[in-house]
Amino acid sequence: MPTSALVLFSGGQDSTTCLAWALARFERVETVGFDYGQRHAAELAARPRILAVMRTMADGSRLGQDQLLPLDTLKAIGGSALTDDVAIAMGESGLPTTFVPGRNVMFLTAAAALGYRRGIDDLVGGMCETDFSGYPDCRNDTIKATARALSLGLARDIRIHTPLMWIDKAATWQLAEELGGPALVDLIVEETVTCYQGDRTHRHAWGYGCGSCPACELRAAGFARFRTS
Ligand code: ZN
Q: For the domain 4-228, what is the CATH superfamily, name and number?
């Protein structure tokens, strides 16, 4: 088994679950986050709080360095509801305006480069094809092809693990419970930010959020199915 992994950790529900997944499998786990000029800083602000609690949980001693990398190229390009004052709606391309073109490919490229420096070839990301909003860079084919390109470009065997790829949001909550019990579910409810509006004022059973953006709706529906299953 490879000894170290680098988790793409945004401070959201999915990447927090992926972090717990990695801590259960790798002897050493480092984290990387990206400041790409997202409109709402709530997710980035949640990162250190979540990491502090994770260090106290099972396998928390495996948690190593965390790094926040600037990728403000995405903000400079702009045009997305996540980087600019653009309404969340279905765009002309058939993709929601929350799509940030190239984001995951850039994230994975930057993570692989950091991993290269840190001697880590195993990357872990929360990309998911099941509940996805139509984002083409969340597809398994995109991730596999990116791993291939990065392996060639770095002359290393880069592996990209996506434990959420084929499960829905209810199963993501379930996975968190299996990995870390009620304490991890509580941490995800209390601290992780999924909301596209970055809302930290409205508290629901499933956590904080505006309750009406597509990300909140997915999270709420998944939580409801998780609690009734
Ligand atoms: Zn929301």
A: HUPs (3.40.50.620)
